[in-house]
Predict the 3D structure of the following.
Amino acid sequence: MHKRLFIALTGAVSALLCLLLGLAWLVPYIGFDNIHPGLSAVTGLALAALLIGIVLVALSVAIQAGTGKKPFGSGLSKLARGISIRFFLPLMELLGRLCGLPVERVRRSFIQVNNDLVAAEVGRFRPAEILILLPHCLQWSGCSLRVSNRPENCARCGQCDLAGLMELVDKYGVGIGVATGGTLARRIVKSKNPRLIIAVACERDLTSGIQDTHPLPAYGVLNERPNGPCLDTRVAVPAIEKALQRFIA
């Protein structure tokens, strides 16, 4: 359900951009002929190409999110994900605010669509090429062990979901990292050098993480916050395992 919002906002942003491009062509069309007879036609063709490109990207995002298929090939699929991350998302957050939509709702929708695009775009990887990236707030607040950047220190006492996640690491042989913030997360990604990230975080951190790691594909899983943000958060371990089964060769 959430991804329908992102697709609808993508269509709305695309329509607005097409309208602006149309106006951008109409205004110079009136006066460009005074500079050179062919200048208005060249401008019109360039803007028409941009308009077609925007429509194709919006259609690619909608079809991939809805069907899991790449309607226009792998090249446009990667381009569509990149444009969604870098260009459409900020515009959709702005449009959502103007329409009175909570920014978290827009981001949840984006994360779902991003996951569909990643699943449609990428293939399968060796376990060593996959990194599970976790926020420090998953660790039980009463734990005295240091697991940031050293998740193997986890005692697996069962007080938090790290125990179940470490069992997945043992079972599948994938990489894992626990970060206290964006700087450490980027350092972990650089040191592990994965080809795919399965990231757990809140809407804000997942969205910024997906933007930061692009073009590296990042599959997002939202955490649960029964005690509020950044304190003893939880994650559905079966959802992480399901993602691993989808992407492991």
In short: The CA atoms of residues 60 and 71 lie 6 Å apart. Residues 127-247 form a domain with the Rossmann fold fold (CATH 3.40.50). Strands lie at 130-135, 175-179, 196-201, 218-222.
